[in-house]
Amino acid sequence: MDLFHVKIFLCLIFWSNFVKCTIELESFGSPSAFDENLYKEVLDTDKCKKELDFLADPINILRKLKFLDAGIKIPRGITSFNLVDLGNYFQCLDIGEDFEDRTIDGKYCMISVPLRQGNLQWPDAIDSVTLSNNPFGLLFSNNTVFDFENNEGNIRKVKTLEKSLHNLLGVEVNENGRVSTDSVLASLSLKLAACIPKTCTTKEALDSFYGNAVSAGLEYTEDFCRLPNDKPYVTADYVACVIFGLIGLLTLISTTYDINHCFLLKRDPKTANALYRSFSVYTNCKQLVTVTSSPSTIECLDGIRVLAMAWVILGHTYSTLGAFPLANPLARQEWLESWHSILITAAPITVDTFFLLSGLLVVYTTAGKFKRMDLIKNVHLFYLNRLLRMFPILAAAILLIASWYNHVADGPYWSVFASKVDRCRTYWWSTLLYVQNYTNQSKMCVGQGWYLAVDIQLHILSPLVLFWVLSGRRAAWTSMTLVLIASLTAATVYNAVNGFSAKIVGNTRDYFRLYYMNTLTRASPFFVGMLYGYVLYLTKNQKLHLKKPLFLTLWSISTLILTSTILVTYPVQQSSWRHRLADTLINSFLRPLWAAAVGWLIFACHKGYGGPLNWFLSLRFWKVPARLSYAMYIFHYAILNIVNYTHLAPVHFSDEAFLFRFIADFSLALFVAFFATLLIDSPCSTLIKMALTPGRKEEQQKATEKNAEAEIVSNGYTDKSRL
Prior knowledge:
Keywords: Membrane, Signal, Transmembrane, Transmembrane helix. Residues 45-227 form the Nose resistant-to-fluoxetine protein N-terminal domain. This protein is mainly alpha-helical. It has two domains: 36-226, no CATH class; 247-715, no CATH class. Helix content is 60%, strand content 5%. It has helices at 3-25, 36-41, 45-56, 61-70, 89-94, 128-133, 142-149, 152-161, 202-209, 235-264, 281-289, 300-323, 329-336, 342-345, 350-364, 372-377, 379-402, 414-426, 428-432, 450-469, 473-498, 509-516, 519-522, 524-538, 548-567, 569-572, 580-606, 611-617, 623-627, 629-644, 655-692, 699-715; strands at residues 84-85, 96-99, 102-114, 189-197, 221-226. Strands 1, 2, 3, 4 and 5 form a five-stranded mixed beta sheet that branches. Helix 12 (300-323) packs antiparallel against helix 15 (350-364), helix 12 packs across helix 31 and helix 15 runs parallel beside helix 20.
């Protein structure tokens, strides 16, 4: 066994042990993003009573007002169905009033208060003026409720928001004027912020601040509470410091060596030690921004990749920000069923563009370089190459979410992001092993990582097809056609049996768990890509002569498919949509049809039939962001969530505001991806190539590999066909 195969053997041992260790580590659990013990330790009934008595003294009314001002208020825009008021988060946590030998510190809590308060009985001593100013009154006069619920516009909006209340038109109000059980408002709750002394429970504080509200029968649930400095530093934080500190040190040393070699000693950069300069910022940055090309380069892929990634981020801008409390939630519901939302509701189809590119490139970069027996002998390299090249960026993102991201920002809804931190500290292994689309589906660490799992699983299966592709043209066409037909048939049967709706926005959890992240239902665009990859390989460096009627017809069909795929989301998103057969056909065939249309676009542009579109997609402007697309995909989602969950008030929904937000999101993702690629991906890529390259090559063979690498780099993808 030569040295090269010894290295491969060691890599396989490492990977198998890594799998074993990561699965075993899950049983130990992981620390929460918040210090749960801290919340329990600060509670003290005796201290709470003294502090509340102190604040109740009229002399201390201004001190009490600090808590009231930072806490409960009727949500602004409640008639527009804004049912959330987040109070003043930082003002509450900054409260520190001197009292005896300690301070009365603020604690921020969120509570849910149902609009229907059936058991609430206010003491007779509370007069009408107090009630009218009491945020817990929640009592509507008969006229107010009647006017609201008999307004056709309000009824329509409530039905859109609460689809389970379709036929509730009649309104009955009890003798106290409270919302009755069969009212369209009965199932809704107010989300209110409460600022209370940290030693108190919400019941103790609310009874004191709001006239025995809880004791009088106020129904509410406590969602969470927050305290200053409640994010403990855990093992993941220290591991991140060590790993990223080591990367920084290696970068400094490597860059110093590179600059000294090239500028101070003025030696030829080619004579520098590749290992020593692997982390050099100078060399890696130069390679990252250098734009080169070759005759066999598929230039239009750069523009397609960047535009597809922009569409992904645009869709996630709407979905992540739309999940945050909105000041006008009804406007979002109406928007979803309007023509204005088509570009967003159709955005998930862009993921199938990446599946197409992945299948296309796995054939295009493999055919012609291997014989079928060579593929069998080197299949371990095929897998290792793919797995290891995806690993560094993904691992870095997981580590950042599990550690530093929890400390970079804060806000009243940070608990939502904290749940993602907990997932990464507990279920990180299923993401790194690319099985999160089947394991821990509801607890995924990197939410968009399901795509990587499906992509890796398809690459694991691809040698079964590649073996026949490398066996000859007849075997290639037969194998790829059969596997595409088989995947379409299986997906159609699966969709018909399960009866999934074709809706993307507002669909059930089972849809995303059983269909959207399922390798079977998402495989067909990948196999369509393999067909196009083989066609491009067969016609490589050849000039085709298509008759004008033919390519115009193909362009018309492609345009019709692309347009129809986007427009079909409009009727599907309507609340009245109920067509099971159409759902099955859309779920089964829409994605491969999209892939086929985009595949023709790539083929036509590459073969000189793209016209101005090919010019636009092939601009050198696209090359650098295309190389960053993988890092952008991995990092952008967490970044969007960090920014969103620092908002201090409900967000107003509008296309204009969200589009401006998208520009910021895309720019920030591009910025982070550049440095992640420069400092992590590029150095690791060099090290992996050195580890997996067998022995010393002949000069001619080196030149061939260099040209092949230049071709791959210019296209913005590696031989693993990453994003």
